Amino acid sequence: MEIGHVSKKPAHAASSLQWSQWQLLDSILPTGGFAHSFGLEAAIGTHMIGGSEDLRTFVVHVLENSGSLLLPFVYSASKSPDANTLHNLDRMLDAMLTNEVGRKASVAQGSALIRVASAAFLEIPSLKMIRERFLGSGTVCFHHAPVFGLICGLIGLDSETSQRAYVFITMRDVISAATRLNLIGPLGAAVLQHQISDVAEAVVEKWKNRAADEACQTVPLLDTIQGCHAYLFSRLFCS
Amino acid sequence: METGTKSGEVRVEKVGGKSMVTKCFSKYPLKFIIPKKAGPSKTDSVWIYSLTYGGGIVSGDVISSGLYVGDGSTTVLTTQASTKVYKSLGSKCSEQLFEAEIGSDALLVVIPDPVTCFSTARYSQKQVFRVVPGSSLVLVDWITSGRHESGEVWDFNLYKSTNNIFFSDGQPLFLDTVLLEQGGIAPLAERMQDYRVIAMVVLLGPKLRHVQIRIQEDVKTMMSGQLRVSFSSLNCRKKPNPHNTSPDKPALVASCSAFGPKRVGVVVRIASMTTESVYSFLRHQLEDLEPLIGLSPYC
Protein backbone atom coordinates (compact mmCIF):
# COMPACT_ATOMS: atom_id res chain seq x y z
CA MET A 1 0.00 0.00 0.00
CA GLU A 2 1.38 3.44 -0.89
CA ILE A 3 2.34 5.76 2.01
CA GLY A 4 0.17 8.51 0.59
CA HIS A 5 -2.85 6.25 0.46
CA VAL A 6 -2.43 5.09 4.09
CA SER A 7 -2.03 8.61 5.48
CA LYS A 8 -5.17 9.76 3.67
CA LYS A 9 -7.43 7.24 5.48
CA PRO A 10 -7.40 8.64 9.06
CA ALA A 11 -7.97 12.23 7.84
CA HIS A 12 -10.83 11.08 5.63
CA ALA A 13 -12.38 9.15 8.52
CA ALA A 14 -12.07 12.17 10.82
CA SER A 15 -13.77 14.55 8.42
CA SER A 16 -16.42 11.98 7.58
CA LEU A 17 -17.12 11.72 11.31
CA GLN A 18 -17.59 15.50 11.52
CA TRP A 19 -20.27 15.39 8.81
CA SER A 20 -22.15 12.65 10.72
CA GLN A 21 -21.67 14.44 14.04
CA TRP A 22 -23.00 17.75 12.75
CA GLN A 23 -25.98 16.04 11.18
CA LEU A 24 -26.74 14.22 14.45
CA LEU A 25 -26.68 17.46 16.44
CA ASP A 26 -28.45 19.61 13.89
CA SER A 27 -31.90 20.66 15.04
CA ILE A 28 -33.19 19.93 11.52
CA LEU A 29 -32.82 16.18 12.14
CA PRO A 30 -36.44 14.97 12.32
CA THR A 31 -36.57 13.54 15.86
CA GLY A 32 -39.56 15.50 17.09
CA GLY A 33 -37.45 17.33 19.69
CA PHE A 34 -39.44 20.48 19.08
CA ALA A 35 -42.57 18.93 20.56
CA HIS A 36 -41.04 18.94 24.06
CA SER A 37 -40.38 21.76 26.49
CA PHE A 38 -38.69 19.76 29.31
CA GLY A 39 -41.29 20.96 31.77
CA LEU A 40 -40.92 24.64 30.83
CA GLU A 41 -44.54 25.00 29.77
CA ALA A 42 -45.66 23.45 33.06
CA ALA A 43 -43.22 25.69 34.96
CA ILE A 44 -44.87 28.74 33.42
CA GLY A 45 -48.24 27.30 34.41
CA THR A 46 -47.09 26.90 38.03
CA HIS A 47 -45.74 30.45 38.11
CA MET A 48 -42.10 29.45 38.37
CA ILE A 49 -40.99 31.70 35.51
CA GLY A 50 -41.43 35.37 36.34
CA GLY A 51 -38.65 36.97 34.34
CA SER A 52 -35.53 36.34 32.28
CA GLU A 53 -33.46 35.42 35.35
CA ASP A 54 -36.00 32.72 36.16
CA LEU A 55 -35.65 31.34 32.61
CA ARG A 56 -31.88 31.15 32.91
CA THR A 57 -32.21 29.45 36.31
CA PHE A 58 -34.71 26.98 34.85
CA VAL A 59 -32.43 26.05 31.95
CA VAL A 60 -29.48 25.53 34.34
CA HIS A 61 -31.65 23.30 36.54
CA VAL A 62 -32.76 21.23 33.52
CA LEU A 63 -29.14 20.79 32.47
CA GLU A 64 -28.06 19.73 35.95
CA ASN A 65 -30.92 17.26 36.37
CA SER A 66 -30.35 15.84 32.88
CA GLY A 67 -26.68 15.53 33.72
CA SER A 68 -27.22 13.59 36.90
CA LEU A 69 -30.06 11.42 35.59
CA LEU A 70 -29.35 10.84 31.91
CA LEU A 71 -25.64 11.29 31.20
CA PRO A 72 -24.82 7.91 32.81
CA PHE A 73 -27.08 6.27 30.22
CA VAL A 74 -25.49 8.15 27.31
CA TYR A 75 -22.05 7.21 28.67
CA SER A 76 -22.77 3.52 29.16
CA ALA A 77 -24.44 3.16 25.75
CA SER A 78 -21.62 4.95 23.92
CA LYS A 79 -18.97 2.78 25.63
CA SER A 80 -20.62 -0.44 24.53
CA PRO A 81 -22.94 0.32 21.63
CA ASP A 82 -24.60 -3.08 21.24
CA ALA A 83 -28.07 -4.61 21.48
CA ASN A 84 -27.69 -6.21 24.92
CA THR A 85 -26.41 -3.02 26.54
CA LEU A 86 -29.20 -1.03 24.92
CA HIS A 87 -31.77 -3.51 26.25
CA ASN A 88 -30.45 -3.35 29.83
CA LEU A 89 -30.11 0.45 29.86
CA ASP A 90 -33.55 0.88 28.33
CA ARG A 91 -35.22 -1.32 30.98
CA MET A 92 -33.42 0.53 33.74
CA LEU A 93 -34.24 4.00 32.45
CA ASP A 94 -37.86 3.00 31.96
CA ALA A 95 -38.01 2.19 35.68
CA MET A 96 -36.22 5.45 36.57
CA LEU A 97 -38.28 7.87 34.51
CA THR A 98 -41.12 7.71 36.98
CA ASN A 99 -42.73 10.88 35.68
CA GLU A 100 -45.06 9.71 32.93
CA VAL A 101 -44.78 12.93 30.90
CA GLY A 102 -40.99 12.73 30.80
CA ARG A 103 -41.04 8.98 30.16
CA LYS A 104 -43.31 9.29 27.12
CA ALA A 105 -41.23 12.18 25.76
CA SER A 106 -38.07 10.10 26.09
CA VAL A 107 -39.62 7.17 24.21
CA ALA A 108 -41.03 9.41 21.46
CA GLN A 109 -37.68 11.10 20.84
CA GLY A 110 -35.60 7.95 21.11
CA SER A 111 -37.87 6.03 18.72
CA ALA A 112 -37.76 8.84 16.18
CA LEU A 113 -33.98 9.16 16.54
CA ILE A 114 -33.21 5.50 15.91
CA ARG A 115 -35.64 5.47 12.99
CA VAL A 116 -33.88 8.41 11.31
CA ALA A 117 -30.39 7.15 12.12
CA SER A 118 -31.02 3.64 10.82
CA ALA A 119 -32.44 5.09 7.59
CA ALA A 120 -29.70 7.68 7.07
CA PHE A 121 -26.51 6.05 8.42
CA LEU A 122 -26.65 3.07 6.08
CA GLU A 123 -22.92 2.45 6.49
CA ILE A 124 -23.81 1.17 10.01
CA PRO A 125 -26.08 -1.81 9.31
CA SER A 126 -26.23 -2.76 13.01
CA LEU A 127 -28.43 0.28 13.68
CA LYS A 128 -31.15 -1.06 11.41
CA MET A 129 -30.68 -4.59 12.77
CA ILE A 130 -30.98 -3.48 16.39
CA ARG A 131 -34.04 -1.39 15.65
CA GLU A 132 -35.82 -4.17 13.78
CA ARG A 133 -34.94 -6.78 16.38
CA PHE A 134 -36.43 -4.78 19.25
CA LEU A 135 -39.43 -3.51 17.28
CA GLY A 136 -40.27 -7.15 16.72
CA SER A 137 -39.82 -8.28 20.33
CA GLY A 138 -41.37 -5.21 21.98
CA THR A 139 -38.95 -5.51 24.90
CA VAL A 140 -37.27 -2.15 24.35
CA CYS A 141 -38.98 1.25 24.43
CA PHE A 142 -36.10 3.11 22.72
CA HIS A 143 -35.54 5.70 25.43
CA HIS A 144 -33.72 8.75 24.13
CA ALA A 145 -30.52 8.88 26.21
CA PRO A 146 -29.36 5.27 25.62
CA VAL A 147 -30.31 5.44 21.91
CA PHE A 148 -28.36 8.69 21.56
CA GLY A 149 -25.34 7.11 23.24
CA LEU A 150 -25.63 4.00 21.05
CA ILE A 151 -25.65 6.03 17.83
CA CYS A 152 -22.75 8.22 18.98
CA GLY A 153 -20.76 5.12 19.83
CA LEU A 154 -21.52 3.44 16.51
CA ILE A 155 -20.59 6.47 14.37
CA GLY A 156 -17.27 6.65 16.22
CA LEU A 157 -17.68 9.57 18.62
CA ASP A 158 -15.67 9.25 21.84
CA SER A 159 -17.78 8.96 24.97
CA GLU A 160 -16.88 12.40 26.37
CA THR A 161 -17.94 14.14 23.16
CA SER A 162 -21.11 12.04 23.15
CA GLN A 163 -22.00 13.20 26.66
CA ARG A 164 -21.19 16.83 25.84
CA ALA A 165 -23.35 16.50 22.72
CA TYR A 166 -26.28 15.25 24.79
CA VAL A 167 -26.10 18.22 27.14
CA PHE A 168 -25.80 20.47 24.07
CA ILE A 169 -29.00 19.21 22.45
CA THR A 170 -30.84 19.42 25.78
CA MET A 171 -29.81 23.06 26.17
CA ARG A 172 -30.63 23.79 22.53
CA ASP A 173 -34.12 22.29 22.83
CA VAL A 174 -35.12 23.97 26.12
CA ILE A 175 -34.03 27.38 24.84
CA SER A 176 -35.83 26.73 21.57
CA ALA A 177 -39.00 25.90 23.53
CA ALA A 178 -38.56 29.17 25.44
CA THR A 179 -38.66 31.17 22.20
CA ARG A 180 -41.84 29.42 21.08
CA LEU A 181 -43.39 30.10 24.49
CA ASN A 182 -42.65 33.78 23.94
CA LEU A 183 -40.31 33.93 26.96
CA ILE A 184 -37.38 35.19 24.92
CA GLY A 185 -36.72 36.35 21.36
CA PRO A 186 -34.49 34.51 18.88
CA LEU A 187 -31.59 36.93 19.42
CA GLY A 188 -31.92 36.77 23.19
CA ALA A 189 -32.00 32.97 22.91
CA ALA A 190 -28.71 32.96 21.04
CA VAL A 191 -27.16 35.24 23.67
CA LEU A 192 -28.47 33.06 26.51
CA GLN A 193 -27.26 29.84 24.90
CA HIS A 194 -23.73 31.19 24.57
CA GLN A 195 -23.77 32.63 28.10
CA ILE A 196 -24.80 29.30 29.60
CA SER A 197 -22.28 27.20 27.67
CA ASP A 198 -19.78 27.47 30.57
CA VAL A 199 -22.39 26.09 32.94
CA ALA A 200 -23.25 23.35 30.46
CA GLU A 201 -19.59 22.35 30.31
CA ALA A 202 -19.48 22.30 34.13
CA VAL A 203 -22.46 19.91 34.06
CA VAL A 204 -20.59 17.61 31.67
CA GLU A 205 -17.45 17.71 33.84
CA LYS A 206 -19.37 16.91 37.00
CA TRP A 207 -21.71 14.16 35.78
CA LYS A 208 -19.76 12.45 33.02
CA ASN A 209 -18.45 8.89 33.02
CA ARG A 210 -20.73 7.39 35.65
CA ALA A 211 -22.38 3.98 35.66
CA ALA A 212 -26.12 3.87 35.04
CA ASP A 213 -26.85 2.67 38.56
CA GLU A 214 -25.41 5.97 39.85
CA ALA A 215 -28.08 7.95 38.01
CA CYS A 216 -30.08 10.23 40.29
CA GLN A 217 -32.28 13.31 40.32
CA THR A 218 -30.68 16.45 41.70
CA VAL A 219 -33.57 18.83 41.03
CA PRO A 220 -36.63 16.85 42.19
CA LEU A 221 -38.85 19.92 41.86
CA LEU A 222 -38.49 19.65 38.07
CA ASP A 223 -39.93 16.15 38.09
CA THR A 224 -42.91 17.32 40.15
CA ILE A 225 -43.55 20.25 37.84
CA GLN A 226 -43.06 18.38 34.57
CA GLY A 227 -45.62 15.86 35.81
CA CYS A 228 -48.15 18.71 35.93
CA HIS A 229 -47.91 19.15 32.17
CA ALA A 230 -50.87 16.83 31.69
CA TYR A 231 -53.04 19.11 33.85
CA LEU A 232 -52.55 22.19 31.66
CA PHE A 233 -55.80 23.17 30.01
CA SER A 234 -54.22 24.27 26.77
CA ARG A 235 -50.77 23.21 25.68
CA LEU A 236 -48.34 24.02 22.94
CA PHE A 237 -46.01 21.14 23.75
CA CYS A 238 -46.32 17.40 24.43
CA SER A 239 -44.14 17.64 27.53
CA MET B 1 -27.83 -10.34 54.51
CA GLU B 2 -26.86 -12.30 57.63
CA THR B 3 -28.49 -11.29 60.91
CA GLY B 4 -25.06 -10.41 62.32
CA THR B 5 -24.69 -7.33 60.13
CA LYS B 6 -28.26 -6.13 60.58
CA SER B 7 -29.51 -3.74 63.25
CA GLY B 8 -33.01 -5.14 62.98
CA GLU B 9 -35.22 -7.76 61.40
CA VAL B 10 -38.91 -8.50 61.54
CA ARG B 11 -40.92 -11.31 59.97
CA VAL B 12 -44.70 -11.09 59.71
CA GLU B 13 -46.60 -14.16 58.58
CA LYS B 14 -50.19 -15.22 58.43
CA VAL B 15 -50.68 -17.77 61.16
CA GLY B 16 -54.12 -19.22 61.81
CA GLY B 17 -55.71 -16.56 59.58
CA LYS B 18 -54.07 -13.61 61.38
CA SER B 19 -50.97 -11.53 60.63
CA MET B 20 -48.46 -12.39 63.37
CA VAL B 21 -44.90 -11.39 64.13
CA THR B 22 -42.88 -14.60 63.90
CA LYS B 23 -39.50 -12.95 64.39
CA CYS B 24 -38.45 -9.62 65.84
CA PHE B 25 -34.90 -8.53 66.51
CA SER B 26 -33.34 -5.11 66.93
CA LYS B 27 -30.13 -3.80 68.39
CA TYR B 28 -28.70 -0.38 69.24
CA PRO B 29 -29.20 2.20 67.75
CA LEU B 30 -32.42 0.77 66.29
CA LYS B 31 -35.49 -0.30 68.22
CA PHE B 32 -38.77 -1.75 67.04
CA ILE B 33 -41.91 -1.28 69.08
CA ILE B 34 -44.83 -3.52 68.13
CA PRO B 35 -47.97 -2.72 70.11
CA LYS B 36 -50.21 -5.69 70.79
CA LYS B 37 -53.14 -3.80 69.44
CA ALA B 38 -52.91 -0.81 67.09
CA GLY B 39 -56.44 -0.65 65.79
CA PRO B 40 -59.83 -2.34 66.10
CA SER B 41 -59.35 -6.05 66.64
CA LYS B 42 -61.31 -7.01 63.55
CA THR B 43 -58.65 -5.44 61.33
CA ASP B 44 -55.83 -7.81 60.56
CA SER B 45 -52.60 -5.83 60.59
CA VAL B 46 -49.34 -5.59 62.47
CA TRP B 47 -48.03 -2.10 63.30
CA ILE B 48 -44.29 -1.63 63.72
CA TYR B 49 -42.85 1.60 65.13
CA SER B 50 -39.22 2.14 64.24
CA LEU B 51 -37.16 4.31 66.58
CA THR B 52 -33.58 5.27 67.08
CA TYR B 53 -32.12 5.71 70.55
CA GLY B 54 -31.61 9.38 71.30
CA GLY B 55 -34.45 10.30 68.96
CA GLY B 56 -32.29 10.80 65.93
CA ILE B 57 -29.52 9.57 63.71
CA VAL B 58 -26.06 10.50 64.87
CA SER B 59 -23.15 11.19 62.54
CA GLY B 60 -21.62 7.94 61.35
CA ASP B 61 -24.54 5.68 62.39
CA VAL B 62 -25.10 2.82 59.97
CA ILE B 63 -28.47 1.17 60.45
CA SER B 64 -29.65 -1.73 58.33
CA SER B 65 -32.85 -3.67 58.74
CA GLY B 66 -35.00 -6.21 56.96
CA LEU B 67 -38.71 -6.96 56.89
CA TYR B 68 -40.54 -9.97 55.51
CA VAL B 69 -44.29 -9.59 54.90
CA GLY B 70 -45.62 -13.06 54.24
CA ASP B 71 -48.39 -14.06 51.87
CA GLY B 72 -51.77 -12.65 52.82
CA SER B 73 -50.50 -10.59 55.74
CA THR B 74 -50.62 -6.84 56.38
CA THR B 75 -47.88 -4.78 58.00
CA VAL B 76 -47.53 -1.08 58.75
CA LEU B 77 -44.10 0.45 59.35
CA THR B 78 -44.02 3.90 60.85
CA THR B 79 -42.13 6.27 63.14
CA GLN B 80 -43.06 8.07 66.33
CA ALA B 81 -41.73 11.43 65.19
CA SER B 82 -39.74 13.10 62.47
CA THR B 83 -36.40 11.37 61.89
CA LYS B 84 -33.75 13.90 62.84
CA VAL B 85 -30.32 13.61 61.35
CA TYR B 86 -27.77 15.44 63.46
CA LYS B 87 -24.83 17.40 62.14
CA SER B 88 -21.99 15.53 60.51
CA LEU B 89 -18.75 15.21 62.47
CA GLY B 90 -15.65 15.07 60.32
CA SER B 91 -17.63 14.61 57.08
CA LYS B 92 -18.98 11.27 58.22
CA CYS B 93 -22.14 10.13 56.49
CA SER B 94 -24.99 8.36 58.30
CA GLU B 95 -26.69 5.56 56.45
CA GLN B 96 -29.86 3.57 56.66
CA LEU B 97 -30.53 0.52 54.57
CA PHE B 98 -33.93 -1.15 54.59
CA GLU B 99 -34.86 -4.25 52.59
CA ALA B 100 -38.37 -5.65 52.46
CA GLU B 101 -39.91 -8.65 50.79
CA ILE B 102 -43.65 -8.58 50.17
CA GLY B 103 -45.53 -11.79 49.47
CA SER B 104 -48.56 -12.53 47.39
CA ASP B 105 -51.82 -10.89 48.52
CA ALA B 106 -49.77 -9.10 51.18
CA LEU B 107 -49.78 -5.40 51.99
CA LEU B 108 -46.93 -3.29 53.35
CA VAL B 109 -47.67 0.31 54.32
CA VAL B 110 -44.61 2.46 55.01
CA ILE B 111 -45.79 5.76 56.49
CA PRO B 112 -42.97 7.51 58.33
CA ASP B 113 -42.78 11.09 59.53
CA PRO B 114 -40.45 13.20 57.40
CA VAL B 115 -36.67 13.23 57.67
CA THR B 116 -35.20 16.48 58.97
CA CYS B 117 -31.51 16.99 58.39
CA PHE B 118 -29.82 19.51 60.64
CA SER B 119 -27.26 21.97 59.33
CA THR B 120 -24.17 20.21 57.87
CA ALA B 121 -25.75 16.75 58.22
CA ARG B 122 -24.75 14.03 55.73
CA TYR B 123 -27.30 11.26 55.31
CA SER B 124 -28.02 8.49 52.86
CA GLN B 125 -30.88 6.01 52.90
CA LYS B 126 -31.74 3.12 50.64
CA GLN B 127 -35.01 1.19 50.66
CA VAL B 128 -35.32 -1.87 48.48
CA PHE B 129 -38.59 -3.75 48.01
CA ARG B 130 -39.03 -7.11 46.32
CA VAL B 131 -42.53 -7.85 45.14
CA VAL B 132 -44.49 -10.60 43.42
CA PRO B 133 -47.68 -10.28 41.34
CA GLY B 134 -50.40 -9.57 43.88
CA SER B 135 -48.14 -7.66 46.32
CA SER B 136 -49.37 -4.28 47.50
CA LEU B 137 -47.22 -1.44 48.81
CA VAL B 138 -47.79 2.07 50.10
CA LEU B 139 -44.53 3.98 50.42
CA VAL B 140 -44.23 7.53 51.70
CA ASP B 141 -40.76 9.09 51.61
CA TRP B 142 -40.34 12.73 52.53
CA ILE B 143 -37.94 15.35 53.75
CA THR B 144 -38.21 18.84 55.20
CA SER B 145 -35.73 21.63 54.61
CA GLY B 146 -34.40 21.47 58.17
CA ARG B 147 -35.12 23.32 61.39
CA HIS B 148 -36.65 26.40 59.80
CA GLU B 149 -37.33 27.95 63.20
CA SER B 150 -33.55 28.02 63.71
CA GLY B 151 -33.09 29.52 60.25
CA GLU B 152 -31.87 26.27 58.67
CA VAL B 153 -33.35 26.06 55.21
CA TRP B 154 -31.84 23.37 52.96
CA ASP B 155 -28.70 23.82 55.03
CA PHE B 156 -27.56 20.21 55.28
CA ASN B 157 -24.56 18.98 53.30
CA LEU B 158 -25.90 15.79 51.78
CA TYR B 159 -29.15 13.90 51.57
CA LYS B 160 -29.57 10.90 49.35
CA SER B 161 -32.63 8.72 49.21
CA THR B 162 -33.00 5.64 47.03
CA ASN B 163 -36.26 3.73 46.66
CA ASN B 164 -36.09 0.69 44.43
CA ILE B 165 -38.77 -1.89 43.70
CA PHE B 166 -37.85 -5.14 41.97
CA PHE B 167 -39.84 -8.10 40.70
CA SER B 168 -38.85 -11.46 42.15
CA ASP B 169 -36.84 -12.24 38.98
CA GLY B 170 -34.69 -9.17 39.64
CA GLN B 171 -36.18 -7.00 36.89
CA PRO B 172 -36.61 -3.37 38.00
CA LEU B 173 -40.14 -2.03 38.40
CA PHE B 174 -39.42 1.36 39.97
CA LEU B 175 -36.03 2.99 40.56
CA ASP B 176 -35.70 6.39 42.14
CA THR B 177 -32.76 8.19 43.70
CA VAL B 178 -32.88 11.78 44.85
CA LEU B 179 -29.56 13.43 45.66
CA LEU B 180 -29.51 16.81 47.37
CA GLU B 181 -26.01 18.07 47.95
CA GLN B 182 -24.68 21.51 48.90
CA GLY B 183 -22.53 23.24 46.36
CA GLY B 184 -23.92 21.82 43.15
CA ILE B 185 -23.73 23.79 39.95
CA ALA B 186 -26.99 25.38 40.99
CA PRO B 187 -27.18 26.12 44.76
CA LEU B 188 -29.39 23.68 46.66
CA ALA B 189 -31.74 26.30 48.07
CA GLU B 190 -32.24 27.70 44.56
CA ARG B 191 -33.11 24.24 43.22
CA MET B 192 -35.86 24.00 45.82
CA GLN B 193 -37.19 27.52 45.13
CA ASP B 194 -39.61 28.55 47.92
CA TYR B 195 -40.55 24.98 48.79
CA ARG B 196 -39.68 23.57 52.20
CA VAL B 197 -40.87 19.99 51.91
CA ILE B 198 -40.63 17.40 49.17
CA ALA B 199 -42.52 14.15 49.34
CA MET B 200 -43.08 11.05 47.27
CA VAL B 201 -45.94 8.58 47.63
CA VAL B 202 -45.88 5.23 45.81
CA LEU B 203 -49.07 3.19 45.61
CA LEU B 204 -48.62 -0.24 44.10
CA GLY B 205 -50.77 -3.30 43.77
CA PRO B 206 -54.34 -4.58 43.72
CA LYS B 207 -55.32 -3.57 47.28
CA LEU B 208 -54.71 0.09 46.49
CA ARG B 209 -56.69 0.52 43.30
CA HIS B 210 -59.32 2.72 44.99
CA VAL B 211 -56.67 4.91 46.63
CA GLN B 212 -54.86 5.27 43.28
CA ILE B 213 -58.01 6.31 41.44
CA ARG B 214 -58.98 8.85 44.08
CA ILE B 215 -55.53 10.44 44.40
CA GLN B 216 -55.16 10.82 40.63
CA GLU B 217 -58.53 12.55 40.37
CA ASP B 218 -57.96 14.78 43.41
CA VAL B 219 -54.49 15.91 42.29
CA LYS B 220 -55.76 16.61 38.78
CA THR B 221 -58.63 18.71 40.14
CA MET B 222 -56.41 20.55 42.60
CA MET B 223 -53.68 21.37 40.08
CA SER B 224 -55.90 22.18 37.10
CA GLY B 225 -57.43 24.96 39.13
CA GLN B 226 -54.02 26.46 39.89
CA LEU B 227 -52.33 26.34 36.53
CA ARG B 228 -52.67 29.32 34.27
CA VAL B 229 -52.56 29.37 30.51
CA SER B 230 -48.96 29.75 29.42
CA PHE B 231 -49.43 31.70 26.24
CA SER B 232 -51.88 34.52 26.66
CA SER B 233 -51.30 35.93 30.14
CA LEU B 234 -47.55 35.88 30.05
CA ASN B 235 -45.20 38.46 28.72
CA CYS B 236 -41.77 38.12 30.21
CA ARG B 237 -40.29 40.84 28.09
CA LYS B 238 -42.09 43.50 30.13
CA LYS B 239 -40.24 45.14 33.02
CA PRO B 240 -39.89 42.73 35.93
CA ASN B 241 -42.11 43.11 38.98
CA PRO B 242 -40.40 45.80 41.15
CA HIS B 243 -41.35 43.98 44.34
CA ASN B 244 -39.47 40.92 43.07
CA THR B 245 -41.88 38.48 44.67
CA SER B 246 -43.72 35.50 43.22
CA PRO B 247 -47.01 35.64 45.05
CA ASP B 248 -48.69 33.25 42.64
CA LYS B 249 -46.59 30.12 43.18
CA PRO B 250 -48.87 27.37 44.47
CA ALA B 251 -48.18 26.60 48.14
CA LEU B 252 -48.43 22.91 47.27
CA VAL B 253 -47.58 21.42 43.88
CA ALA B 254 -48.32 17.78 43.13
CA SER B 255 -48.35 15.48 40.14
CA CYS B 256 -49.26 11.83 39.61
CA SER B 257 -47.88 9.30 37.19
CA ALA B 258 -48.75 5.67 36.55
CA PHE B 259 -45.89 3.21 36.16
CA GLY B 260 -45.26 -0.46 35.53
CA PRO B 261 -46.93 -3.16 33.45
CA LYS B 262 -50.67 -2.53 33.14
CA ARG B 263 -50.12 0.68 35.13
CA VAL B 264 -49.99 -1.32 38.37
CA GLY B 265 -48.36 1.53 40.27
CA VAL B 266 -48.95 5.23 40.83
CA VAL B 267 -46.31 7.66 42.07
CA VAL B 268 -47.21 11.08 43.44
CA ARG B 269 -44.61 13.80 43.83
CA ILE B 270 -45.28 16.74 46.06
CA ALA B 271 -43.48 19.99 46.84
CA SER B 272 -44.90 22.21 49.54
CA MET B 273 -44.11 25.39 51.42
CA THR B 274 -45.31 23.94 54.73
CA THR B 275 -45.00 20.58 56.44
CA GLU B 276 -48.54 20.84 57.76
CA SER B 277 -50.11 20.98 54.30
CA VAL B 278 -48.35 17.74 53.34
CA TYR B 279 -49.55 16.04 56.53
CA SER B 280 -53.03 17.22 55.61
CA PHE B 281 -52.72 15.96 52.03
CA LEU B 282 -51.48 12.54 53.22
CA ARG B 283 -54.18 12.26 55.89
CA HIS B 284 -56.83 13.01 53.35
CA GLN B 285 -55.55 10.77 50.56
CA LEU B 286 -54.64 7.79 52.73
CA GLU B 287 -57.74 7.75 54.94
CA ASP B 288 -59.21 4.98 52.76
CA LEU B 289 -56.50 2.69 54.14
CA GLU B 290 -58.22 2.59 57.50
CA PRO B 291 -60.31 -0.54 56.81
CA LEU B 292 -57.13 -2.30 55.66
CA ILE B 293 -54.80 -1.31 58.49
CA GLY B 294 -57.06 -0.31 61.38
CA LEU B 295 -56.04 3.33 61.76
CA SER B 296 -55.97 6.26 59.40
CA PRO B 297 -52.37 7.33 58.62
CA TYR B 298 -51.02 10.67 59.85
CA CYS B 299 -53.88 11.37 62.22
TrEMBL record, chain A:
- Keywords assigned by UniProt? Chaperone, Nickel insertion
Residue stretches spanning the membrane: none
One Pfam family in the UniProt entry? UreF
- Origin, by domain of life? Eukaryota
**Gene Ontology molecular function, alphabetical:** nickel cation binding
Tell me the Gene3D superfamilies matching this sequence. Urease accessory protein UreF
What's the family? Belongs to the UreF family.
Q: What is this protein called?
A: Urease accessory protein F
Species of provenance: Punica granatum
Automatic annotation (TrEMBL), chain B:
Q: Which UniProt keywords apply?
A: Chaperone
Q: Which InterPro entries match?
A: UreD
Q: What is the superkingdom listed in this entry's lineage?
A: Eukaryota
Key word Nucleotide-binding present: no
What GO molecular functions are on record for this protein?
Answer: nickel cation binding
Q: Which family does it belong to?
A: Belongs to the UreD family.
Name it.
Answer: Urease accessory protein D
Q: Which organism does this record belong to?
A: Punica granatum
Instruction: Supply the source organism's classification.
Output: Eukaryota, Viridiplantae, Streptophyta, Embryophyta, Tracheophyta
Which gene is this protein's source? LOC116208323
